[in-house]
Amino acid sequence: MKTLLFIIWLSFLSLPFMGIKGALYLFSGICAVFGIFIFLKKSFKKVRIPEISYNLKFLIIGLFLFIALLPFAVKDYYLDVAILAGIYIILALGVNVVIGFSGLLHLGFAAFYAIGAYSNALLTTKLGLGFWSALPLTLFFTAISGLFLAFPALRLRGDYLAIVTLGFGEIIRLILNNWDSLTRGPNGITNIPAPFIFSFELTGLWSYYYLVLVFVFIAVFIVRRVYYSRIGRAWLSIREDEVAAEAMGINATKYKFLAFVFGAFWAGLAGALFASKMRFVSPESFTFMESVFVVCMIILGGLGSIPGVILGSLILVLLPEILREFQLYRMLALGAGLVLMMIFRPQGLLRVETTRFRGKV
Questions:
Q1: What tens digit of pLDDT does each residue of 326-343 get?
Q2: Which positions ≥6 away from 109 have C-beta within 8 Å?
């Protein structure tokens, strides 16, 4: 019944684009494809298919080789999209720490992203620092902003926390848009220098791709280690039941502060990479919809799942570009896919399995 209602709803949405006749064709086609799928599924249940064994290590090695050799196999446009996907993976990992690990509904994460980007831009253009000299200060400023937000925000829970974080995101965007003497307002900051490694300037897409790739690996490694650490166990227990966690001796306030600071740290890194890659930042890049976009990534991939965050980021960044030729239908297809996902697999594409830990928290 849910499937039929979804097909009808999708056909109704296509009316402005395809007309009544096209919507009827779409409805008939989807029903036919779904009927064939059900028939084949029932038929294959009666056929015994031998298990296919494969070596997971070879699969991982092949994946790493594909990622490493990607700049030599694709055009510059797709390489540019891959760099953007890598930046979003780092940003989504930070959001996943706050929402996925700790269960704190944060809807203003674009503010930390903006603070990271503007800190890097101002330090490199106003003070003349290089990318590597400005990066520690950028990460420090962003982490401190997460700490400052945590003071008033963590007195609240649920929807009220979401409203406060949403308001924080809008406040930061308006400050960046109106503080002309510092941020140049809507005009943004231009001529942000590219990073240097020794005497080599990373201006080419392929060189910046490898820089972002290294930071993605570092972010995944550190976040995964923290997830399986004592801190990660505390976050998960707070997410599942805060009252029970406090009864077991966990200082929920301390670990929530830590989640905000740690998540903001990765948003600052993503913002610094974004600013140095684009060589320009403006308030229009850090709107509320940017926060929603990143939250959709972790929901699509699976809350709390690190591989799911990577997969969700890749899908939501790459899929609109793949469907760019279908300009009228690409956002319809993307939206329909998300709705379909929420109906049939609300836990995400890669649901995180319940992890059992031993020892004290």
A1: 556 666 666 776 777 777
A2: 91, 94, 95, 98, 165, 169, 263, 267, 291, 294, 295
